[in-house]
Amino acid sequence: MKPQLLILLLLVMIHPVFPQSTIDVPTDTQQIFKILQMQVDGWNNGNIEAFMQGYAQTDSLRFASEGSVSYGWKNMLDRYRKSYPTRTTMGTLIFSGITVDFVSTEAALAFGTWKLHREKDEPWGLFTLIFKKIKGEWRIVHDHTSSGK
Question: How far apart are CA 115 and CA 99, in angstroms?
């Protein structure tokens, strides 16, 4: 088979798998940034529940950090409450260097840096979030957060 014919055949076969994109990059990116800002605002107001509204409220929500993985929105909420029991331990959250890449019309990957300003320290690290469009709304379905040294 000629290479040109093979390439044409492959393109015809692939096209139905990847239909015309319906991603509105500026709008969808803006919606994801709005969720991240809502999280920062909730955190900085001492409201972990408001921070958690950016996550899909499902049992399959995955959170990976400190060498362990946990599943479920309620488990993640409980973990945050245990790790940050007071306004002092929460500090002031800052996200920076955020990039958003769309994997498909229904999935996006956000990558960035987080930092907490607290009285005695300033922990920081990186995060990778997978967003999924659920019922027309972007929500985080996977969070992998690491700590810097």
Answer: 16
Instruction: Give phi and psi for 42, each to the nearest 5.
Output: -60, -45
CA distance 125 to 134: 28
CATH numbers and ranges of domains, the chain: 22-147 (3.10.450.50)
pLDDT by residue (tens digit) across 24-38?
A: 788 999 999 999 999
Tokens encoding 17: 């798998």
Adjacency order of strands within the sheet including 107-117: 68-71, 62-65, 137-147, 124-134, 107-117, 92-102
Indicate the pTM of the whole model. 0.83
Look at residue 85 and give its three-state secondary structure.
coil
For residue 128, give the nearest of 116, 115, 145, 141 by alpha carbon.
145
The first and second tokens of residue 58, run together, are 């499902």
List Cβ neighbours of 132 (8 Å cut-off, separation of 6 or more): 56, 106, 107, 138, 139, 141
DSSP state of 41: H
